[in-house]
Amino acid sequence: MSEDINQKVINMFNRHNKDLPQEAEERIKFFAGFSYVKLKRDVNGKKFVPSQLTSYAKKCHYIVSVMRDVDGETCLYNYDIKSEDLLKFVKAFDNDTLNGTIIEIEKYVPEDLA
After folding, report:
1. Residue 5 three-state SS
2. Cα–Cα distance measured from residue 98 to residue 92, given in angstroms and rounded to the nearest whole number
3. CA-atom Rg of the chain in angstroms
4. pLDDT in tens, 83-109
5. I need a surface site. Which of 37, 48, 61, 82 has the fewest CB within 10 A?
6. Verdict on whether the full-model pTM lies above 0.85
7. 25-78 per-position pLDDT tens digit
């Protein structure tokens, strides 16, 4: 499944706007220094349902790998971050509460949430 998602992301950003009409929603756009693509419908052509997206987001966790130098040795710290805490975690690097270099952020949904 992650290979399918990876290919979709690669394809989405490799279309280089030139293949799409000027008014296309899927055109790569830029805001606040970041590129993005606006999606109005899911892969099945259905409109997004806010309550379903929110419910899914609450189930997500992220494994954030952070590289740090400890006593002259490079170490990786892997943090399990709930979706609702991800922004707070990233901001902790900006305000120097946490230090190191974020190497990777990987999403997963625990199978047993009970």
Report:
1. helix
2. 5
3. 18
4. 999 999 999 999 999 999 999 999 998
5. 48
6. no
7. 667 788 888 888 888 888 889 999 999 999 999 999 999 999 999 999 999 999
Is residue 86 within 8 A of residue 54, CB to CB? The reply is: no
The whole-angstrom separation of Cα 83 and Cα 62 is: 7
Among 52, 95, 98, smallest CA distance to 79 is for 98
Cβ(110)–Cβ(59) below 8 Å: yes
CB of 38 within 8 A of CB of 26?
A: yes
Helix, strand, coil percentages, rounded to 5, for the chain: 30, 30, 40
Alpha-carbon distance of 36 to 89, in angstroms, equals 22
Any residues with CB less than 8 A from the CB of 18 and at least 6 apart, and which?
A: none
CB atoms within 10 A of CB 66: 19
Exposed / middle / buried, residue 64 (Cβ in 10 Å: 0-12, 13-18, 19+): buried
